[in-house]
Amino acid sequence: MKRIIIVTVLVLVVSGWLYFSGVGEQEQSTYTPVSPTIITPEKPVPADIAHEMMFIPYWNIPSGEETSEYDSLIYFGVAPDTDGSLKEDEGRSKLELFIERSSSARKQYITVRMLNTETNIEILESPEAQEKLIREVTEIAQIYRFDGIVLDLEMSVIPFSDTKEDISDFIEKVSGSLHQENLEVLITLYGDTFYRGRPYDVSFLGEQVDGILIMAYDFHKSRGEPGPNFPFDRKEEYDFKQMVQDFSKNVDNEKITVIFGMYGYDWTLGEQGLPLKSAQAIPLYEIESDILPGCNGDCTISTDKTSSETKVTYSDSEGYDHVLWFESEDSVEVKMKYLEEQGIGSIGYWVWGYF
Question: CB–CB of 98/78 below 8 Å?
Fold first, then answer.
């Protein structure tokens, strides 16, 4: 597993984390098994992990040496205003620095950070805003010679049919316009899209875009009850295996990339064993360098059989009990092996710090 410097929006004091992963959503599961629209072999042909990508956020751009081993780098990114114009924010101002430090990558993409539901709704309801957004992101992609864009359109709304249709129409319009300019279009989707009934027509979107990046993390929310980042094999409940099967039934495996979040959530518990506040997000490197080595008699470390992730319990200096769940290199290896067995050969990472 490669080790690089990269900062993401995982720590709650960084506001970006709240909107990127849907933290704080108190959702009820609406999951029912999906009907296949794409027929896949009963026994998928194993595929080695042949492609690895990494998200590079504007607030911490590593050197080219640190990212040289990745096939694709995704700059995160630029953000639109309600009228579709791209904001003159720090994300836009750091574009040149990203290009300067990422020249070794085989492919480079720029993310359109559509992370505010209210702003997104205004854009989805305005053809003029959509045209402006498409025009401006196309211009940036051409000026900086990106291979394409990653559309990170996140919605924290009940999936009414018109919302789903609006999203489909917009992404179809984006793909049609950028494909005419020989630019690729990738989109991100939540790993729990099917489980929580999010407003995305996955089958239709899979036909429109060149790739779908599945955010296979944050299944247990920081403001919810403790649990693994994304459980691997729970059978009686939703898990990583079912997620892969759901997406594979609707999207060609060659278009699927699974993104792993290399971090953990640390919950502070009350007397009833319930969280007292939102969990703190901790990067894997910090867990491995600071928390695990200091684990003493008051600390227990175990690998959960159903999730393949690591669980740590301990008490702090003030006497509060804690439970920490995190994705590790070992748990990723288990999940990667399953992806290979299913014929999926593309993965990526969304991390905070080193890993």
Answer: no
Q: Alpha helices, DSSP H only, in the chain?
A: 15-20, 64-67, 90-93, 95-101, 117-124, 127-143, 161-180, 202-208, 240-250, 284-286, 329-341
CA distance 174 to 189: 16
DSSP track, 49-82: --EEEEEEETT----HHHHTT-SEEEEEEE-B-T
pLDDT tens, residue by residue, 288-326: 888 888 787 778 999 998 889 999 999 888 889 999 999
pLDDT of residue 158: 64
Mean pLDDT of 221-241: 91
Place of tokens 């998928």: 44
Element (H, E) at 187: strand 184-190
pLDDT tens profile 7-55 = 333 333 333 333 334 433 434 444 444 433 333 334 444 567 889 999 9
Bridge-based pairing state of the strands 321-326 and 256-269 = antiparallel
State how far the alpha carbon of 239 is from the alpha carbons of 46, 47, 205, in Å: 21, 21, 22
Residue 178 has φ and ψ, to the nearest 5°, of: -75, -35
CA-based end-to-end distance of the chain: 8
Is the CB of residue 80 less than 8 Å from the CB of residue 87? Answer: yes
Q: Which tens digits make up the pLDDT trace of 105-138? A: 789 999 999 999 999 999 999 999 999 999 999 9
Tokens read off for 330: 């070992």
Query: Minimal CA–CA distance to 311: which of 320, 300, 319?
Result: 300
Nearest to 191 by CA among 253, 235, 256, 252: 256
Residue type, 225: E
User: How many CA atoms lie less than 13 Å away from 45 in the CB half-sphere?
Assistant: 2
Containing H/E element for 113? strand 107-114
pLDDT at 201 over 80: yes
